[in-house]
Amino acid sequence: MMLDYSFFLFLLFFSFTQPCNGLVLGLTHYKDSHEPMARPLRPFSTTDLSEPVRGYRDGYLFSLSLGTPPQLMQVYMDTGSDLTWVPCGNLSFECINCKDNRGDRVMGSFSPSLSSSCSRDVCDSHFCVTIHSSDDSYDPCAMTGCFLGSILRGMCSRPCPPFTYTYGDGIVLGTLTRDTLMVHGSDQSVTKDVPDFCFGCVASTYMEPIGIVGFGKGALSLPSQLGFLHKGFSHCFLSFKFSNKPNISTPLIIGDSAIASREEVQFTPMLKCPMYPSFYYVGLEAIFIGGEILEVPQILREINSQGNGGMLVDSGTTYTHLPQALFTKFLSVMGSKITHPRSVEHERKTGFGLCYQVPTAVTESLPSLSFRFVNNVTLTLPEENYFYAMAPSNGTYIVKCLLVQGMEDDSYGPAGVLGSFQQQNVEVVYDLSDERIGFHARDCALLAISHGLYKK
Ligand SMILES: *[C@@H]1O[C@H](CO)[C@@H](O)[C@H](O)[C@H]1NC(C)=O
Ligand SMILES: *[C@@H]1O[C@H](CO)[C@@H](O)[C@H](O)[C@H]1NC(C)=O
Ligand SMILES: *[C@@H]1O[C@H](CO)[C@@H](O)[C@H](O)[C@H]1NC(C)=O
Ligand SMILES: *[C@@H]1O[C@H](CO)[C@@H](O)[C@H](O)[C@H]1NC(C)=O
């Protein structure tokens, strides 16, 4: 079977002024690849894990502790890819075409030479074959120059050759590395060491300033390597207003308690996509704008025989994307319900379709927005999840823009993407045992407080 690579290119950089963070970058972090079926290599104990997640710029950061003694790094949590990678090496991390990543140094980098438990992955490992997206498991060792005889006898223990891994817009180049990963139990004081966790040690990237932890379903992903692929995880992303505040985070829960049934969480089935089996897809049935129904095309509800369609749930993409034709209708229905003056200047500056000068004196003057997924699951979004203030108020008016975008190329791959911005203050449950995704709108800051993750 031939491999098929296709990269989704949409949502490039843009910046807007926002009171506490100067720049918001577009993230698209999902990678396509055919992969051998994921299997947990080392079933982990049944204890649940809980790791703090917080907002930073246009995504959500996860703390990774790698090595002996542990080195701490902050990386983006991405449900749209599998690989975990960290900037690696001494001071040499290079990010090509990164606008402003001076502040990102504080995210930390990994020094293999300072860890006593670090090793390079070898060419005949399952992970090495996976990252090289080969369906011939001998390829990586052949690349290292071993003789066939030694490859067949399993005697070619050369290092896994360097790889590149491609995201929506970005590329990273690195080497597969293994080291101890330290994780936390539901009780933060309980830690557990996972030996030989496999990740990318990356010295240079194109447009990827910050490391990433992959939460997809492929063999390399963190839930997969830790043996949680048949359980699940859940997160509750804080409001964007807490972005860049290190003092507040919410728990990312991995294990049984993440998926334990609760009445308030509504579940929609995950769609099966044999072509992109690592991704999480749901079916979108309708959109409601100020109570008016907007029918959506069939391609958003199900994956067709070519493997295209469905709505990707992706924490590594910032804004929700809709197919172009639907997006145009979405803007016109939304626009027809709003009487505030348009701010064409901000639309031009930000690239968003609808910006308004909203009088500061009125509250709740913008139409409600709900998504209905398969199984009559209705997710009503808090207003700040779609209309966001782009600049401080001038006293009378505040400019708010609709932060939803059209898919740049909707002819293949997912038909739409549910991005992290629209997941603020929504608990999202990835139930992998029952192959369903649950949503529950709630105030995630309260969860931070109840877990002692808001430190004054
Ligand atoms: C990185 O720094 C450590 C300690 O400063 C040093 O021992 C090591 O040789 C350096 N490695 C490289 C690749 O420069
Ligand atoms: C779908 O859910 C809504 C409430 O969210 C309810 O009013 C409606 O009757 C449900 N429809 C079906 C077909 O179950
Ligand atoms: C705020 O902006 C609006 C629209 O541009 C303008 O009409 C109004 O006079 C401004 N108010 C102040 C206090 O500057
Ligand atoms: C964050 O916490 C530290 C102490 O832990 C405190 O000094 C600081 O004021 C807090 N910052 C914010 C913005 O709450």
Explain how this protein is built.
With 456 residues, this protein is mostly beta strands. It folds into two domains: 49-121 and 160-256, Acid Proteases (Cathepsin D, subunit A, domain 1, Beta Barrel); 262-424, Cathepsin D, subunit A, domain 1, CATH 2.40.70. It is built from eight helices and 27 strands. The protein has helices at residues 126-131, 139-143, 148-152, 222-225, 256-259, 324-336, 344-350, 444-450, and strands spanning 49-56, 59-66, 71-78, 85-87, 94-96, 119-120, 163-166, 171-184, 191-206, 212-214, 232-236, 250-254, 266-269, 281-282, 284-289, 292-295, 311-313, 320-322, 355-359, 369-373, 377-380, 387-389, 397-402, 404-406, 416-418, 426-431, 436-441. Strand 2 and strand 3 (71-78) form a beta hairpin. The protein is globular and about 75 Å long. One 2-acetamido-2-deoxy-beta-D-glucopyranose (NAG) binds at residues 357, 394-397. Residues 1-22 form the signal peptide. Belongs to the peptidase A1 family. InterPro entries: Aspartic_peptidase_AS (IPR001969), Pepsin-like_plant (IPR034161), PEPTIDASE_A1 (IPR033121), Peptidase_aspartic_dom_sf (IPR021109), Plant_Aspart_Prot_A1 (IPR051708), TAXi_C (IPR032799), TAXi_N (IPR032861). GO terms for molecular function: aspartic-type endopeptidase activity.
Structural class: mainly beta
Largest sheet: 15 strands, mixed
* Radius of gyration from the alpha-carbon trace, in angstroms: 22 Å
Low-confidence stretches: 1-45
Bound molecules: 2-acetamido-2-deoxy-beta-D-glucopyranose
| Number of discrete domains | 2
List the quaternary state of the chains: single chain
Specify the overall morphology.
globular
The helicity comes to 10-25%
CATH topology-level name of the largest domain? Cathepsin D, subunit A, domain 1
Beta-strand proportion = 25-35%
List how many beta strands DSSP finds: 27
The level-1 CATH class of the largest domain: Mainly Beta
**How confident is the prediction overall: mean pLDDT?**
88
The CATH superfamily label of the largest domain reads Acid Proteases
